[in-house]
Amino acid sequence: GRVLALKAALGLFDDPFRRLQPARAQARQRRPETLALAREAASKSIVLLKNDGGLLPLPRSGKRIALIGPWAQDVDNAIGPWVLFGGNDAGNDLASAMRAVMGKDARRVEV
């Protein structure tokens, strides 16, 4: 309670983005070191609970992969709502990323 009261007293809830500089923030999030840190954080945050039948890693060719659901080609949900600047060009949807990794041998099933 005291932390929230202090933040309220400092006016942080009145306009939390008043000091934000969009051009500066966007430039920072596109720096190579920022992108490398984001990639590292993402790779360390993914947890495989069980690899039944040695399914992973996925083969790069010869197999069909079904991407099922409304977000398979949705960049907004892939990058998440926490991206303030950059828009859809800041990320890839799952289907595009899988095609890029699997190359020309990829076969896609859309449902």
TrEMBL record:
Keywords: Glycosidase, Hydrolase, Signal. InterPro entries: Cellulose_Degrad_GH3 (IPR051915), Glyco_hydro_3_C (IPR002772), Glyco_hydro_3_C_sf (IPR036881). Its EC number is 3.2.1.21. One of its GO terms (molecular function) is beta-glucosidase activity. The keyword Hydrolase applies. Residues 46-83 form the Glycoside hydrolase family 3 C-terminal domain. The keyword Transport does not apply. PANTHER family: LYSOSOMAL BETA GLUCOSIDASE, PERIPLASMIC BETA-GLUCOSIDASE-RELATED. This is beta-glucosidase.
